[in-house]
Amino acid sequence: MTEYDDQWLRDGLAAAVPTPPEAADRAHRATAKARRGRHLRAAGILGAAAVVVGGAVIWSVNGDGSDRASDPAEPPTVTCPPVPSPGFPDGATGKVGEGVRAGAVSARLCQGTGTEFDVPDDALVTGVDELTDTVNGLDAYPASGPGTACTMDLGPGYQIVFGYPDGSTVVVAGELYGCHTVTVGDDDFRSDPEALWARYSALLRQQRDASKPPATTPAADLSCNPQPSPVGRAADITEAVYCSDGPGPAVPIPAEDLAVLVADMQTSEPAGITPACYTPGRIVGQTSWGDTVQTSALCGGDRWAMEDDLAWSVSPASKAILDRLAGEFAQAP
Amino acid sequence: MERTVVDGPMPQAGVDSVSADGTDGFDAFVSARGNALWRSAWLLTGDHQLAEDLVQTALAKSWRAFDRVGIDGFEPYVRRVMFTTYISWWRRKWRGERPTGELPEVPGHAPDTDGRNDLLAALEGLPRGQRAVVVLRYFEDLSEAQAADVLGISVGTVKSQCSRALTALRTSPRLQREDS
Q1: Is residue A159 within 8 Å of A82, Cβ to Cβ?
Q2: CB-CB under 8 Å, B34 with A27
Q3: Among all residues of chain B, which has the CA nearest to that of A1?
Q4: Beta bridge partners of A160
Q5: Phi, psi of A189 (to 5 degrees)
Q6: Which of A165, B78, B94, B131 falls 20 to 30 Å from B152 in CA-CA distance?
Q7: Considering the entire predicted model, what is its pTM?
């Protein structure tokens, strides 16, 4: 590139950039965002570590509405509603509404408006009252006004369908992006969808810890562009592929190697501060519960990012396996 | 053409977490340098709101390190977080985009795709890594070594990424009009 070209590019970039918008509360919003993320991670870790009080009846509901109940007194079927259109909390009054009424016997996590995620096959049937209390304990969303606007940061959107013995349902929608609203029914707007998301994940994990995985799970469809599950844990992986940058296809991980990696993942600890650089390398797997999970190499590749802000310190044996898989990926046609 | 990137000065070294006038050191940093970060974020994303969110995300990730890193090293720290977030996390977390037609209007913002942004359109055709290198080298005026440090890659990789990016820009149909 000539010096002229060099200057042309510098000038062109400088001229192309528009005037930044007014962002007087940028620092406040950033610190609020940091606190929200910390709360989400803490809730997930505490939930996963919570002592499970057993004795609950486990049942599950398929996405098509067919039940796989283990209790003859089956709760009514709960199915996922359609994904709603994107909304805006312009009806928020700053006051809470009636919330979720007591007595729900199931709560099923469904796809909402936003980035897609891997919806769990099983519904929550233990700790539903706790989840109800969590929703009803959320603060009211601030009253909207003429100047109300939300950023377009993108993230998952979810719905939780509460089922009642009489067959009725209440839908609670959460948006982990933009306005970050929780909407109960049509017009009860609450804040902190992250807390509800984390609570649901923690309760479903507790439920799973007290039961056995399904005998069969849907056939794994492991690609390098997964939609990860919010509740899946890498330590439950039963089948996995290795992915990296580039067009190469996913490299299946042999069972004996996967066993070494999964056992090593059990040593994961809180990630703490990690250097900021990008290192390619991902493991995409399916768990015994049918969840799709993904772990990614952290800066340098000696540690890998796990769920709940944990980090897996790769052992020499695992490192050798990962290096070999990376080589196979690079050489794949 | 003169550069028009003007922002407030960096807060002085030695700023405590809470300064004498009650202004938080982090707030002062964001006030002084937030727009500069936003401009780079805009060149990376090509969108006002995505740029704002990228800046906020980088600041949120960096906020707790403010006291440890210190005011002198905080801007490079935030920049590194912002660029690496853009390269790695961005594509996973924000791949699915919402239709803008349903979003509230934000007054006072010019469209991001008007005619003056042919260069931006050409940038959008670059892989993320190349785009980041171009912004670091030709907008932020960083050296190859500094850009490598920000991205956590070697100087050689910066050179090769930069070379490929410039070749792509030079041959981009979006920019042919200006050359003819």
Answers
A1: no
A2: yes
A3: B166
A4: A109, A172
A5: -95, 130
A6: B94
A7: 0.52
